[in-house]
Amino acid sequence: AQKITQTQPGMFVQEKEAVTLDCTYDTSDPSYGLFWYKQPSSGEMIFLIYQGSYDQQNATEGRYSLNFQKARKSANLVISASQLGDSAMYFCAMREGEAAGNKLTFGGGTRVLVKP
Amino acid sequence: GAVVSQHPSRVICKSGTSVKIECRSLDFQATTMFWYRQFPKQSLMLMATSNEGSKATYEQGVEKDKFLINHASLTLSTLTVTSAHPEDSSFYICSAREGGTYEQYFGPGTRLTVT
Question: Which residue has the higher pLDDT, A18 or A101?
Fold first, then answer.
């Protein structure tokens, strides 16, 4: 079974509008974390936001916020006020606990294209 | 923030030769480094995890004799692709983690083309 699922392979968003990128995960480890990364065409992986499984509040970083619904095992990324520079691939990743070596497992990614 | 470099950024080699890719943490000590492979339009796949001073742990399906990983110091890990073939052409990305933290800092990646 997929550990990390991103169901949207690609999406368009109008500049200045908000966009939600879906991510669902599957783990039995009580201690885990969820990351979102942005990968522009240059290939570098840019860290956006992190949510730990025990964090009480949803993470926010500037225009990025994470809608963490633990019972549903979802960790959607919300980008507010989209900019042309937000066009990129976005990956959700899960870190499982020490027993799993704190490795990251990545979802398939969502390509976002911001239209002017 | 923490910076990870990779060298070279691009390399073209002939089939049958070996290629070494370096991954360095520039401003922190990386107790653990990870090597990923990414095919075009696909996600990152973890190849192996290396801890400083010990043997790398390879993911299922990754040939350890083909992808040699060395993590000789707290700031340097190397990936050597031995006897490269065209199917090894890919984007290789490393990441580094400081002890006691969860975040992985990624290098800019190395694009390998085997002709």
Answer: A18
Residue A81, SS3? coil
A104 touching B (Cβ < 8 Å)? yes
Of B34, B91, B102, the CB nearest to A43: B91
| Inter-chain CB proximity A43 and B108 less than 8 Å | yes
How confident is the model over A68-99, as pLDDT tens digits? 999 999 999 999 999 999 999 999 999 987 77
User: Which residues of chain A from 19 to 58 reach within 8 Å of chain B, CB to CB?
Assistant: 33, 35, 37, 42-45, 47, 50, 52
Count A/B contacts: CB-CB distance under 8 Å.
48
User: Quick count: other Cβ atoms within 10 Å of Cβ B7?
Assistant: 14
CB B48 within 8 A of CB B55: no
A33: which chain B residues are within 8 Å (Cβ-Cβ)? 102
Read off the pLDDT of residues A25-45 as tens digits, 9 standing for 90 and up.
999 889 999 999 999 999 999
Q: Give the tokens for residue A106.
A: 């990545």
